[in-house]
Inverse folding.
């Protein structure tokens, strides 16, 4: 079964690096978004069973995406991927519905560990 995943980051290079860090065995269909508005559109189109979400982006940041998902009752497995690893940022993201928080740059081993921890089939 193919898993639709969404990689959201305003940096094309960061998106590319995250995609390269995904488990090779994971059968996925990848969609990319450069801001929160694009992310919500892709999510609403069914392209985000798993969402990798940056927090700091123009137009609509990751916190705003999480708030919108929470308000609308939308359901997705959200992993925040951010260089901002301050405890307050992690706490805020998790209160808004993020299941996990991964530090940039992403380590393939950490990413796979987080996915397995939350029962994502790889």
């Amino acid at each position: 079964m193919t898993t639709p995943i969404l990689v959201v980051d305003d940096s094309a290079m960061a998106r590319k690096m995250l995609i390269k860090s995904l488990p090779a065995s994971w059968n996925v269909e990848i969609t990319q978004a450069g801001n929160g508005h694009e992310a919500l559109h892709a999510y609403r189109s069914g392209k985000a069973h798993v969402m990798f979400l940056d927090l700091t982006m123009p137009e609509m940041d990751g916190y705003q995406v999480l708030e919108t998902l929470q308000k609308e009752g939308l359901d997705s497995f959200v992993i925040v991927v951010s260089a901002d690893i301050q405890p307050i940022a992690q706490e805020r993201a998790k209160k808004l519905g993020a299941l996990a928080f991964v530090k940039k740059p992403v380590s393939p081993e950490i990413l796979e560990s987080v996915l397995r921890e939350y029962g994502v089939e790889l």
Summary: DSSP finds five helices and five strands in the chain.
